[in-house]
Amino acid sequence: MKGIVFTGKQAEVVNGLEVRDPGPTEVRVKIVNAGLCHSDVSVINGTIPWPAPSVLGHEGAGIVDAIGSEVGSVKPGDHVVLTTLANCGLCEHCSAGKPTWCRKSLGNMSQPFTLDGEPAWNFAATSVFAEKTVVREIQCVKIEDDVPLSSACLIGCGVVTGVGAVFNRANVQRGQNVAVFGVGGIGLNVIQACRIAGASRIIALDMIAAKEPLALQFGATDFVDVSQTDGAAAVRELLPYSSKHVTGPMGAGGVDWSFECVGHPKVLEGAMSCLDWGGNCVIIGVPPPTAELSTLIGQFTHVDRGLMGSRYGSIRPHKDIPILVDLYRRGQLMLDELVSATYPIEDFDKALADLHDGKLARGVLAF
Ligand SMILES: NC(=O)c1ccc[n+]([C@@H]2O[C@H](COP(=O)([O-])OP(=O)(O)OC[C@H]3O[C@@H](n4cnc5c(N)ncnc54)[C@H](O)[C@@H]3O)[C@@H](O)[C@H]2O)c1
Ligand SMILES: [Zn+2]
Ligand SMILES: [Zn+2]
Q1: What structural domains does the chain harbor?
Q2: pLDDT tens digit string along 258-290?
Q3: Nearest C-alpha to atom 33 of ligand 1 is from which residue?
Q4: pTM score
Q5: Among residues 295, 297, 235, 234, which one has the least CA distance to residue 266?
């Protein structure tokens, strides 16, 4: 079968993939659509170290093809969104509604594929850039047949990561002010969740000026082109301490929440330095494993500022994904609008180039 494989140097469209049969608690899924998240790019460019050969893709939806003997929640023909969380479902964290803390939910590297007869790794426990993949039953969230899979696939990473960071990790309140650094697939979902939460000012910042209409469409109230100006300073100008002073004592003025959706230490610095007293910065972007941070500690301790990481939107897939689908049906959560273009997998390089050129909210592959 066809798929997209990381060779250790680049991504290649291949024809010689096979995937094994599902084990007793596993499901084989025929992938219909898959979104291109920057984390796939980060494997290709070495930002996220990963072994090769491996089958990329971790944001996908499809149709159940075969089930293991102990699987009861889905059957062949069901439409499913896949999640990367192969959590155990049994430990204290899973029981407490924190599956992203489940010690068994990280990595889950295995070799369910062969490429031209040789073993090939999965990626993020999902590998949806293939015509078929094998995942654990807990990773399959059934959705209704009338939800288009080309939109539903984006729920599998971009939507849960961005929306979950706002609803679950941060808990943004009505009337609060927010800055979102990076208007890609993740940032747009942070923006629309802040809109749904009733945030007051939603300031979007990006290096690419052409992202402005998308940011405003998803709910941003302001856009800052950081190729022209310093992002944190611009946020402070938009939300000054008083009519006379942009910045007050201990950096007063600025936003209640900032979200770093790029994965760059310099961007994170800006996201931290535009916080008001009591403000919190949420790190979503993934820099290389050696990336470090330097900051004035007193700016945090003296006025209750905070810094938090956010993994996969602290999502509880079987509770939150039906809520997201419901918000989509009621016209509040924009999914169709996230799909800027669809590509046959043969055009994967074109999708990569369009993402790099800032042309995409999300690019979606069709199988
Ligand atoms: N924490 C998680 O669970 C999680 C999940 C998925 C993705 N991610 C990470 O989130 C990040 C964003 O992913 P994405 O799919 O939205 O990427 P994307 O490529 O769609 O978007 C990134 C955006 O950042 C902008 N940008 C680049 N440099 C910038 C700068 N200096 N200042 C402001 N904007 C800048 C780009 O123009 C682009 O619009 C990646 O690092 C990805 O690995 C994290
Ligand atoms: Zn992702
Ligand atoms: Zn667990």
Answers
A1: 3-156+335-366 (3.90.180.10), 162-311 (3.40.50.720)
A2: 999 999 999 999 999 999 999 999 999 999 999
A3: 206
A4: 0.98
A5: 295
